[in-house]
Amino acid sequence: MRPVNPPSNNAVPGIIETLSGGFESVNRVLWIIAVPILTDLGLWLVPQLTAAPVFEGVRRWYEQMLQAYTNVSGGGVDTNTLDQSRQIITTLATDAGHFNLLTLLVINIASVPSILPPPREGAPSLEIHTIGALVGVIVATQVLGILLGCLYLGVIGQQVRDGKVTFARLGRRVWFYWLSVIGFILLVIGVSLIISIPIGLAIGLVQLIAPGVGIALWAAASTVGYLVAVLSMIYLFFLVDAIVVSEVGPVRAAISSAQVVANNFWATVGFILLTYMISLGMQVIWKTLSGSPAGVVIAIVGNAYVATGLAAASLLYYKTRAARLRPAGELLDRVSPA
Fold it and tell me: Distance between CA 185 and CA 280 in Å, rounded?
């Protein structure tokens, strides 16, 4: 009989094993789910912060612009088109005016998981009246939200990477994680502007000379931009994981994430789809439970545990695959041995 070869030490766990390992890691530091629980309870209980007056002002300005355009154009204006434009801007202004700006604390690339709890019936709200204040709130909530997310993911990352949590080390490294995430965001904004502005100007000039060609170029540029966005979402899926686990800056983290995906493309796509489907399915359950105060509390606790397990699984998936990229461990030269 032919001897059976033992499993290779270099073998990585499968998707199901990775998900199971993620929840096992969370069970060892179960107290970390208090972060999303307290965050969601805060979003649910504190007064909402909205900018209804600002968006109503935008709606009125747009209405004035449409009226001015109508007066200049005379009878050559398509009234159906104008009515549709008014309806769209009114709907957008109404929806934006009811949006709780504090939820931006949990809407970012390094966010704490949240069910985005519905507003309590009769809950008080505060309003912002100026665009400057609105911009300030957006920036502040994003900066604070990323810091909170880095702290939360830093704890899980230490447990996944080292098998334990060291608060002294976390206190030193969380600022590096935070700056790296913000640096990546600024880098993306800068690169996008550098690329999009010249292309937009060039296509605009072409459209003035040859409208048909310009429209075709706009369509092509939009398609390419969409494809780039989709591929970026896939190849940079583990960006924050790389920052937290490998403790590297934004550029190297992006490269590490892309390498992990490129070397495990279909497995990674399967992992992303499975975690996304689990998240969507659980969100349906949480939304169903959120019809009553007790249900909201159950949904908050349940989501905190499930979402934290999925976050740990993502970190574990990255760690096990990144460790195989270079035999000498060059990619993870700053990672402590598990």
Answer: 26
> Does 2 map to a domain?
no
User: Domains in the chain: how many in total?
Assistant: 1
Using one digit for the tens of pLDDT, what is the confidence trace for 53-78?
A: 888 888 888 888 877 767 766 555 56
pLDDT at 105: 94
Look up tokens 């096990």; give the residue.
320
Residue 253 binned pLDDT confidence (cut-offs 50, 70, 90) = very high
Question: Is 39:112 a contact under the CB 8 Å cutoff?
Answer: yes
The owner of tokens 């199901």 is 16
**Is the pLDDT at 337 greater than 50, yes or no?**
no
Q: Biggest alpha carbon distance in the chain?
A: 92
Domain region containing 221:
15-51+99-322
Does some domain include residue 70? no
pTM: 0.85
pLDDT on residue 150: 97
**Helix/strand/coil for 49:** strand
CA distance 86 to 101: 24
**Phi, psi dihedral angles at 49 (to 5 degrees):** -120, 115
The dihedral through the CA atoms of 289, 295, 296, 300 has a sign that is: negative
Q: Distances from the Cα of 260 to the Cαs of 3, 24, 98, 118, 241, in angstroms?
A: 33, 23, 40, 37, 11
Q: What is the DSSP string of 181-236?
A: HHHHHHHHHHHHHHHHHHHHHHHHHHHHH-HHHHHHHHHHHHHHHHHHHHHHHHHT
> Helix 167-209 vs helix 131-162: angle between axes, to the nearest 10 degrees?
130
Residue 166, pLDDT > 90, answer yes
